[in-house]
């Protein structure tokens, strides 16, 4: 029997290789300058992200490593989100690298770049084990980043909690993957899909029992990554304790990585078990319950928060629920609505956290009542924060409005296409009602900035990178709200309908 080596096609992996090498360069540069590089190491890291983005733009589509690595439209789209989130997170971190982690700038920025490399590998993975490795390369650097303020009890607590929860969720996910391999005899997503269908026809009772266990463990593992109830308890404490740029990176890039993992395992690999017709081994309604719970729990508990980072943590839980509404829609809008929502969410959330980081660096507080009077001392920051908060609320004509519109439209179309999916109307109803609740706590921050009790409010001074990040957030929120078709047309190249056609 002839043995043939697989086509490696390393050129498809060039963006990941460039960023990985650049992370090593950042670490080496910081050491070579005896940790006296100042802001130069931060600019070097931002330059690496930009260069990687340029390389990505010129990298073609294709398959490598025996179809384990796939550069397709979905991979490119989410890699753009990862790189943009990393660029904005690094730009927001110049304050803490100047004051709090002077002797560890290289490690801080290097870990953020390594995590981004993991996300990019995850986006191109077409096989369960490589997907799992990419997910772990994403999360392990984040454990250290969350606890980077080693003299801060809240930061250390955040790192420990995130480590314990992350390790547990990874174990559950790997446990579920092992069941899928046992049922299908393959870790390749497309081959697994075919083999599962064949094994279900041969011995349905046994397959159903094992498959239910596999589905529950995988959804639990992914639910931890996405902070979907009942696996959301870690998020508020980790978001509050972690350095603010890390919190921003967690809320956007890590969530997008979890969405990619969910899409690849559940939508590409297990789409046939989405329909209630195959009960009890269907996962669609179970994920719908998790999405509805996320919207209710996240928005209701956010109302009670007085700390800005904890409020944004519960807000992030709610937005995960909204995104999953679009993920459940198996039609031409499908992943296009999810992609646009994540794109709009990235600009608003990263920009808001950049403002929060500036205020926290200047005042030492992230408490919402301490935002009183900032509209007068720092009008630019107040206006920027207002625009981005309104986008998260879903106020037209900002990008966040169209994000919610598209995911709800996709769900309504799915519900109207088949009577068995009419339960999705209720899911959309929950989303609309909870959006009203979200308006309350977002508007509370705006009210505090403009009409809250004024104390001795300092004027916030910011660096050029921080200003750049805030401007990117505001401009992206406004421009893509006025011209959503630019992103939607690109995201439409990755519709779920293309993924669910059996080869």
In words, what does this structure look like?
The chain has helices spanning 14-32, 40-58, 73-92, 94-99, 105-124, 128-146, 153-184, 189-202, 204-226, 234-241, 244-269, 284-303, 308-327, 334-363, 374-377, 379-393, 399-417, 423-451, 464-482, 485-491, 496-499, and strands at 62-64, 69-71. It is mostly helical and 503 residues long. It has one domain (10-499). The protein has a two-stranded antiparallel ribbon. A hairpin with a 4-residue loop joins strand 1 and strand 2. The protein is globular, with a radius of gyration of 22 Å. It starts with 13 loop residues before the first helix and ends with a helix.
Task: Provide a concise account of the structure shown.
With 503 residues, this protein is mainly alpha-helical.
Features:
503 residues, mainly alpha, two-stranded antiparallel ribbon, 2 strands, globular
Poorly predicted regions are: none
Report the end-to-end length measured between terminal Cα atoms.
27 Å
- Side-by-side strand order of the widest sheet: 1-2
Q: Provide the domain count.
A: 1
Strand-residue fraction?
under 5%
Radius of gyration: 22 Å
Overall mean confidence score, pLDDT: 85
- The percent of residues in helical segments reads over 70%
Series of secondary-structure elements, N-terminal to C-terminal: HHEEHHHHHHHHHHHHHHHHHHH
General form: globular
Number of helices, counting only DSSP H or I runs of 4 residues or more: 21
* Helix-and-strand structural type: mainly alpha
Q: Care to count the β-strands? A: 2
Query: Tell me about the biggest sheet?
Result: 2 strands, antiparallel
């Amino acid at each position: 029997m002839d043995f043939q080596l697989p086509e490696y096609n390393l050129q498809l992996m060039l963006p990941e290789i460039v960023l990985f090498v650049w992370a090593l360069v950042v670490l080496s540069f910081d050491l070579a300058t005896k940790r006296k590089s100042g802001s130069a190491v931060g600019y070097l890291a931002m330059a690496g992200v930009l260069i990687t983005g340029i390389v990505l733009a010129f990298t073609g589509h294709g398959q490598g490593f025996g179809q384990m690595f796939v550069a397709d439209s979905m991979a490119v789209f989410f890699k753009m989100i990862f790189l943009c989130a990393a660029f904005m997170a690094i730009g927001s971190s110049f304050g803490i690298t100047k004051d709090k982690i002077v002797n560890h700038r290289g490690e801080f920025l290097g870990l953020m770049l390594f995590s981004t490399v993991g996300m990019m590998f995850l986006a191109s993975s077409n096989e369960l084990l490589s997907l799992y490795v990419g997910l772990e390369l994403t999360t392990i650097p984040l454990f250290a980043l969350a606890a980077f303020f080693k003299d801060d009890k809240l930061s250390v607590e955040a790192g420990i909690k995130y480590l314990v929860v992350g390790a547990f969720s990874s174990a559950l996910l790997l446990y579920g993957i092992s069941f899928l391999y046992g049922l299908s005899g393959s870790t390749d997503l497309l081959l697994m899909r075919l083999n599962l269908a064949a094994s279900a026809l041969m011995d349905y009772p046994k397959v159903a029992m094992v498959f239910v266990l596999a589905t529950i463990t995988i959804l639990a593992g992914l639910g931890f990554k996405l902070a979907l109830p009942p696996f959301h308890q870690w998020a508020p404490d980790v978001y509050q304790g972690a350095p603010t740029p890390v919190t921003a990176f967690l809320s956007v890039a890590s969530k997008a990585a979890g969405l990619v993992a969910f899409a690849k395992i559940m939508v590409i690999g297990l789409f046939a078990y989405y329909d209630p017709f195959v009960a009890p081994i269907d996962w669609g309604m179970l994920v719908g319950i998790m999405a509805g719970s996320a919207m209710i729990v996240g928005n209701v508990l956010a109302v009670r928060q007085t700390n800005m980072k904890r409020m944004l943590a519960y807000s992030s839980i709610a937005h995960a629920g909204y995104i999953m509404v679009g993920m459940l829609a198996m039609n031409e809008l499908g992943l296009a609505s999810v992609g646009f929502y994540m794109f709009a969410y990235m600009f608003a959330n990263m920009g808001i956290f950049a403002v929060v980081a500036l205020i926290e660096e200047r005042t030492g507080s992230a408490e919402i009542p301490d935002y009183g009077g900032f509209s007068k001392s720092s009008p630019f920051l107040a206006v920027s924060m207002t625009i981005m908060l309104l986008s998260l609320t879903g106020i037209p004509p900002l990008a966040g409005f169209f994000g919610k519109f598209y995911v709800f439209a996709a769900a309504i179309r799915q519900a109207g296409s088949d009577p068995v999916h009419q339960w999705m109307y209720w899911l959309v109803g929950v989303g609309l009602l909870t959006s009203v609740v979200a308006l309350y706590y977002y508007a509370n921050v705006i009210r505090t900035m403009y009409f809250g009790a004024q104390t001795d409010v300092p004027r916030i001074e910011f660096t050029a990178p921080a200003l750049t990040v805030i401007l990117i957030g505001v401009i992206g929120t406004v421009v893509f709200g006025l011209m959503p078709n630019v992103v939607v047309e690109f995201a439409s190249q990755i519709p779920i309908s293309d993924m669910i056609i059996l080869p």
